[in-house]
Amino acid sequence: MPQMPPPTALPEPTALPGPTVLPGPTVLPDILRERASAEPDRTAYIFLDDTGEETAALTYGQLHAAALGVAQELASRCAPGDRALLVFPQCLEFIVAYFGCLYAGVIAVPLNPPRRNRIQDATRSVVQDCAPAAVLSLELFLAPLRAVLEPLCAATHWLAVDGMPAAAPGFEPFAAALGDVAFLQYTSGSTAAPKGVMVTHGNLMANEEMIRRGFGHDRDSTVVGWAPFFHDQGLIGNVLQPLYVGATSIVMSPATFIRRPLLWLSTITRYRAHTSGGPNFAFEACVGRAAAGPVPELDLSSWKVAFNGAEPIRPDTLRRFEETFAPHGFSTGAWYPCYGLAEATLLVSGSTPGRGRRLLEVDVEALGERRYVDATGARTKTLVGSGHVLPGEDVRIIDPESGEQCPPDRVGEIWVAGGHVAQGYWRNETATELTFRPGGKYLRTGDLGLLLDGELYVVGRSKDLVIIRGRNYYPQDIEQTVQAAHPALRAGAGAAFAIDGPEGEKLVVIQEVRRTADADPADIAADIKAAVLREHELALADLVLTAPDEVQRTSSGKIMRSAARKRYLAKEFELWTPQVEALTDAPRS
Known about the structure:
The chain has about 600 residues and is an alpha/beta fold. Helix content is about 30%, strand content about 25%. It contains 17 helices and 26 strands. The strands form 8 sheets. A 5-stranded mixed beta sheet has the order 11-12-13-14-17. A hairpin with a 2-residue loop joins β24 and β25.
């Protein structure tokens, strides 16, 4: 993110009264205690296995009692403000552990579990940065987890949540204040090392109220979700929001969704869900699986809020999903494009329930100059609106170089102010000063966009911007062109970035090929280069066709372009080669 001068022309944030939270409790632990007292037998969460069967459930009363047990154990070993790693597979015990931390005044740190006894770079960074005093997990995983993490971790307490006794009578949980840090939400690491966003109880309450109002939720708004709990969308959207409004949440694991995307839609049908969603690739996966057939019997008419966020929203994905699932009751008015980020707790902008998506046709040449012009030229692009600015916040579009507010027809950096904006990064004053500025009044998101007729259109990330011969190119546009160039290529599995050359920046593309593809690599490369030249007037300096699962993504599905660039320069990508059987059957020239 570039440095910028103090914004001399930028006015103070609009006076914000702040969102009106639900009357009564002031923090989420108070809300849970109240629900456990008033409706102890009301179902809060249901967990489904890989087949869609209910394998676990928690009522509000059960969650409260189990969380108190965790809190008492933590309080006997940790001081308020200590950090505790939450390292779980997708399961309801994670929720118990999270509220146990809140009840103890211990700062929860949700962590992406190590895979196959291998520690991801992002995981290593999080563990070392937060310096935890305790690690919470399941009894089954605690010993192998300790073997992997202990060399990195100074934690002295390794606790199995599923084996903890109930709290002693009279145990009183920590009395949290709105300004206390509730948990650290580490950033995805798509453009840099993960940083711990300090989310306070006040930030949570402000954003949960924004979500309630924006999504039109009440206690009957059943939510279905599969996003990982260590990610902000999974935790704040699918776990905490239902509790905030008193609704029921049906959850499954991300792995279940990846293996069986249509089980997600079957679950929406079965539980008559009001709200469910995910990144754009989730809807793309459903379309792909439906094309392979058969499609189960579905009734999606209850689905009122199909939120789509966390990565660029592709209009062709929306169109194909509509065409595929309209016969199964899906309404185009259910689309709820939205935008948010961890530094704003979760949600920044969102549509209106029932309105559907809003599209904007723009001129590509002008967009490269950070200007909005109606699509009149030969090269156009469709932007999907990410909704409007929600009550309780102030959103501005700022010129990254001058720090001045942009006129409506100019693309700039999205800046956000409001009660949901977090307090900064954990023990990282330099990054905090750069991002939460000036003086903590605005959050610099690092995302480029424009605000037109009240609708926010997100164009791309400033750090990922490709600048060649003085012109701006958005990498997701190039990636989409590449992936549409040949049927052998995997959708959403490529990275475009620039590298330094003797005559300036040069364009490089890394693209995954389908595992069973039987095409000639030379033909694929020719089609890609022709498409990029035709659509963007750019010549590729290098193209790497790589094997499936080589291009790294964050936990929310974002392409890690900086990581791809680093691996490219180190020559670490595995080159794709056609299967032997395919070569044998191919016609000879």
